[in-house]
Amino acid sequence: xxxxxxxxxxxxxxxxxxxxxxxxxxxxxxxxxxxxxxxxxxxxxxxxxxxxxxxxxxxxxxxxxxxxxxxxxxxxxxxxxxxxxxxxxxxxxxxxxxxxxxxxxxxxxxxx
Length: 112
Ligand code: 5GP
Ligand code: ZN
Fold this sequence. Notes:
Bound molecules: guanosine-5'-monophosphate, zinc ion
Mean pLDDT: 98
Helix content: 10-25%
CATH topology: HIT family, subunit A
Oligomer: single chain
Number of domains: 1
Strand order of the largest sheet: 1-2-3-5-4
Structural class: alpha+beta
Number of helices: 2
CATH class: Alpha Beta
Number of strands: 5
CATH superfamily: HIT-like
Largest sheet: 5 strands, antiparallel
Radius of gyration: 14 Å
CATH architecture: 2-Layer Sandwich
Distance between the termini: 33 Å
């Protein structure tokens, strides 16, 4: 298995888990860019958001349901931002679909 996030999900590489169910795993980003910075990933290996069509479309709903729960658990009452980088122009560095859940401070209005 040469996918970093598949190895994290399998427990081969340690992570700071914040949430797990049968379809989704979430853990703290190793290089946080906000007071709360959680990565939410599907347990099924999917490369990026461009694959969320057809029988994989449900993964988006699975992720967002988990994100709402995590945001509540993390106390992000002031709001939060969810970002997914898809492909080279977006600087995706790990090619296992992941959503960044960011919160805990006022963020910049611009996103690029
Ligand atoms: P991307 O740039 O692909 O959107 O985001 C990848 C994210 O994964 C980055 O924010 C980076 O800090 C995080 N990351 C990379 N390697 C690890 C790791 O081994 N453990 C954790 N917890 N996060 C990682
Ligand atoms: Zn993977």
